[in-house]
Specification:
93 residues
């Protein structure tokens, strides 16, 4: 087992996680973290999942104390191709 006190987080390779999906049963949690078109799948016990949840919640609380509440409003990103553009005639075509 890796000693977490000896891990240098700055030296670890990273993926940008843009989503998560998952499920659970009585004895196991299954979840996947998405990064673009990639999916990394994991399974763990309820005890480990709860410890992950406690750690993540603590990280979010500390972040919000330092930087303010995280805005969870879904960004309004406009597609470069709008439905209105499909109805416009092409230039002389």
């Amino acid at each position: 087992m890796i000693d977490p006190t000896k891990v240098n987080m700055n030296q670890l390779p990273k993926k940008f996680v843009d989503g998560a999906i998952g499920a659970y049963g009585k004895e196991i949690f299954s979840f996947a973290l998405t990064s673009g078109n990639n999916l990394d799948s994991f399974a763990t016990t309820p005890q480990v999942m709860k410890s992950i949840s406690i750690w993540i919640n603590g990280q979010v609380q500390n972040y919000e104390k330092a930087f303010g509440e995280i805005d969870m409003t879904v960004p309004k990103v406009s597609s470069p191709l709008q439905m209105a553009d499909l109805k416009k005639p092409k230039d002389g075509k």
